[in-house]
Amino acid sequence: MKRLSEQRNKILFEKLAKYVGPNVKVLIERPDGNYCFREKKDRVYYLSEKLMKLSDTFTQQQLVCAGTCIGKFTKSNKFILQITALNYLAPYAQCKMWLKSSAEQQFLYGQHVTKGGMGRISENTEKYSGVVVYSMEDLPLGFGVASLSTAECKHADPMATVAFHQCDIGEYIRSEKDLL
Amino acid sequence: MGRKAKFNDGVLVKKGPGKKAKKQGEPIIPVALKDNEGPKKLSRHQQLRAKKREEKKKESKEKQVNNKNKNKKKKQISKYNSDDEESEENDSIDEDMEGESEEVDESDNEEEVTGFTDDNKSWLKPKQQSKSKKQVVEESEDDEDNEEEDSDNEEMEEEEEEEEADNDEDSDISEEDDEYGVSKDDEDNEEEEAEDDDELPIEKESKKLKKEMAQMEKEAEEELQLNIKDQEKFEFPETYDIEQLTLQDVQQRIRDVIVVLSDFSKLRDANRSRTDYLELLLKDLCAYYSYNEYLMDKLMQMFPLNELLEFLEASEVQRPMTIRANSLKTRRRDLAAALINRGVNLDPIGKWSKVGLVIYSSQVPMGATPEYLAGYYMIQGASSLLPVMALAPQENERILDMCAAPGGKASHIAAIMKNTGCLFVNDVNESRIKAVVGNFHRMGIINSVITTVDGRKFPNIIKGFDRVILDAPCTGTGVIAKDPSVKASKDELDLQRCFTLQRQLLLAAIDSVNAKSQTGGYIVYSTCSILPEENEWVVDYALKMRNVKLVETGLDFGTDGFTNYRNHRFHPSLKMTKRFYPHTHNMDGFFVAKLKKISNSIPSDADKVVVSEDEVSNDKKQSSSEDEAPKKEQMTNGKNNKQKRKAENNDSSSSPNKKQKRENEDKKDKSDNKSPKNKFVKKKQFNKGSSASPNKKQKSENDDKKDKSEDKSPKNKKFNKKKQFNKRPTKSDSSPVKGNAEKKTGTNASPAKGKAQYKNKKNFKKTK
After folding, report:
1. I want to staple B21 with a disulfide (CB 3.0 to 4.6 A). Which of B17, B187, B297, B590 is the partner?
2. Which domain holds residue A105?
3. Is B22 a member of any domain?
4. Does A171 score more than 60 pLDDT?
């Protein structure tokens, strides 16, 4: 567990801001103690400082995970959010998209969202901004990138993709081994 | 172990009727319970033949009496039986019969002669006459029979003989009895008639009736006896040949043997011992349920026979699938509503749990619903809710799950803690820990530290937990329904490995708990095995080795743990542990024990488990920083308990062997770093006490040993070591007497010298 470098910190927060906007602050300054981001083998963990201190007693080999893993840095130093970050993205998301129950299953198997499958979309969604995808019962299903803005969506073809798939909770089953 | 992450397999709820819904077959009534229908009625031909056979027997008897021409007859019979020489046979038989009649006549004559010459001829005479008469009649009959036989087809006869072979013995006897009875009766009646000529006919009738009644009763009684005999008859097989039997035969025999064993003295075969029966039963059970003999033997020792069958049957059937609602993300009521919308048929698990649901049937795979993926529930056995309930975690505690994969219990704990405090989740298996990571993220648990460490080494890394749950790896005899491979694969060695590991893990778990925790200091030990070796015995061992006591689990159902098992006599408080069986509680076989740690000190010997009260109080006084504590303690100890310690000192000094022994024992017992630790402690004590009188030093030794053995981490060890040698050199002591003498010199020695001495001592020990 080590601190993120300045550069990586910047990349990380930029990425997070795509989804949660200014709410990134809320992630750091919480009423229940300080939370921090830590890096281990290019993966970024979000955890309370208390937990971090306790986890320091374990060696690299012994420690598997502490707190929540929210994503990883690629070799080319890009940050990729993982489905495990959904717990923090969902409550603070700026742009949201709700899926009809018929389209839920498709999304959970890794398909993009089509206009036909979209039930609702939050008003001010811009093109290529990060969206968190919900079911109609407000169950967070994953997140992606809006391929069209809200206005464009209204006039789009039913088969047109309105959101590109990035992560969905089906990955907990499909790629459990790749989570860490 | 039954705790594999079966996300796909375990999840499918079968649509069709389960094994339990299978129609019951026709009831198979054990032989012993069947109504006996009495002897079979014979066909006319068979009756005739039976008569013939009797007569032949009589003949042979007579012949034996006469003892003449025996050999000839035998030859004839053998000829008679062979197919080849029919004509010859017939001839010979004819001749034979003639011969026989002649012989009989001769013998009769002889008898008559003897009868007449005898003194008793007056009363002997009439009987012999009757006999001769009878014989004459029989002879005539014989002749007729023989003629008939001649005409009969021989092949037919042989076939019939074979058929009748079974009936022969029984029917023959009964018929003979009947005939004799009748003949006797007739004779009696005749005699009576002769006697009671003067009686009225009606009186005669009544007497006759009475006689008949008596006769009937007699017969009935005999029949009853016969029936009972038949019922008892469970024929012990001569050789054990399982391949010849169908599965149903084996099942039948299992029941028969159990019936016999249930009333052994009455139903047993006199030549067979109980062990014979038990062995047969064991083999049959192994064959029928496909267990290996070792495991079946263990189970037979555990359960009474009726319960054993129930257990084995229950172990064949899957338990209903249960889920636990994740209280971090949803409520049980909402979850149930959502699942019912998806076509799931479910029910609350019972009054004892507020988060459990039983799934009866489901149209969708339970492990792939969006609710599951969103972490609203976890698929987990009903039994695995129990240890967590026993643990009763509180918010803001530091809790350890030592063997956690796949994380069902651990996530339950986190849910109860409401994501506060700190949950350490450990499993030694790296591939299985991935399931824990996945589950924890899915369930939204953020207060966890997930590690892969050998549980036995955990207290070396971190300790001071408020609660520890140890769901130890086991043979899995409680979850045979989940993993039937257990039945065949577990043998003595596996079991031994298991409980050795369990003991080590439990000791490690106890060591990692902080006894002085404000809220806790509890350890919950659970296994999914039902064997006492892995359960009560392990806990009993821990009770002896550490300062812990058993407390109530807080579970209001389940059967109490064993205090006696075969030759083992466990600590009586083991009654407070709980066992769960598949056949009585409809959940996986399970064992739960809750321990409370009394003091952080580790008794150096099993004998020293009982901690005297003042020592406990010292423990309480002890501050958390352990470096300061010993000093204080020494002060108090030294002043207060001088006299007492002296006595102890004498004891220890008088028996150097004891110490050596103790060290050896420590080495044996695998709480790894224990023995080296003790050595250090001893040294340290000598150091500190060097300014005081030697006696005092010795006195404080025992106490210090206990207190200081708390800090086990390697860091501390090194630290202690250095500290000691910087401070002052020591002489320690494989023999306490020697130590006493040398200590005085040791006080004045320089640090460097002390180190050297230490080295020497080490060598000395090695050589020893």
Report:
1. B17
2. 94-174
3. no
4. yes
pLDDT of residue B536: 92
Please state the pTM of the whole predicted model: 0.60
Query: Which range has highest mean pLDDT (A23-37, A65-79, B109-123, B166-180)?
Result: A65-79
Which of A87, A104, A132 best probes binding to B when mutated, by most B CB atoms within 10 angstroms?
A: A87
**Across-strand partners of A45?**
A38, A69
Q: Are residues B653 and B525 in the same domain?
A: yes
Q: List the alpha helices (DSSP H) in B118-153.
A: 121-151
Identify whether B732 is part of a domain.
no
Closest CA to B441 of B433, B431, B453: B433
Query: What was the pLDDT predicted at B575?
Result: 92
- Contact indicator for B486, B476 with CB cutoff of 8 Å: yes
Does any domain span residue B683? yes
Domain at A117, CATH number: 2.30.130.10
Q: State the distance between the two ends of chain A, measured CA to CA, in whole angstroms.
A: 14
Question: A154-175 as b/e, with b when 16 or more CB fall inside 10 Å?
Answer: eebeeeebbbebbbbbbbbbee
Cross-chain Cβ contact A87/B368 below 8 Å: no
CA distance B386 to B128: 90
A179 within domain boundaries: no
Same domain, A117 and A149: yes
- Give the pair of three-digit tokens for residue A58: 């374990």
Neighbours of A61 (CB within 10 A): 10
Tokens of B44: 């006319």
Which residues, 6 or more positions from B632, have their beta carbon under 8 angstroms from its beta carbon? B621, B622, B623
**Does A54 sit within 8 Å of B441, measured CB to CB?**
no
ipTM of the complex: 0.94
Q: Give which of B441, B462, B463 to mutate to test A binding, by max A Cβ within 10 Å.
A: B441
Bridge partner residues of B469 (DSSP): B401, B524
Q: What is the mean pLDDT of each run of 10 residues along chain B (768 residues)?
A: 57 66 75 65 86 92 75 51 46 47 46 51 53 48 48 48 47 45 48 62 90 91 70 68 78 87 83 86 89 91 90 91 93 93 92 92 90 92 91 92 91 93 92 91 92 92 92 91 90 91 93 90 92 92 92 90 90 92 90 92 62 42 40 42 43 43 45 41 41 42 44 42 41 35 37 42 44
Put simply, the chain B residues between 531 and 550 with a CB less than 8 A from any chain A CB are none
Note down the domain range covering B221. Answer: 199-231
